[in-house]
Amino acid sequence: MERNALRANLVARTEDWRWGSLWRRQRGGDPEIRLHDGPLAVPRNWVKLVNTPQTEGELAAVRHAAVRGSPYGSAAWRVQTAQRMGLQATLRPEGRPRKPVEEETPMVF
Hints:
This protein is mainly alpha-helical. The chain has helices at about 5, 20-25, 45-50, 55-70, 75-85.
């Protein structure tokens, strides 16, 4: 993630991390190293977005998505993307589904 060096307090601004993709996108660099543009266009305010600190909740959600291998984004987008890419299992709760609780029949003596 482009924000890692900033989060680790290695730089004041993300684009100052010489070994990061944002620095390379802005300044070029080694022509042997090419960055893929990705499936979506980068927003015009990308540098501002990347330099905006994440909340603890956002960071936890990103880490959870990374661990599970699930899409990260709005709820509707996650579901749509998971279906398109066959990742529905990554959206379900971890572990085995719980068995339904059966009502106990009182024992009559």
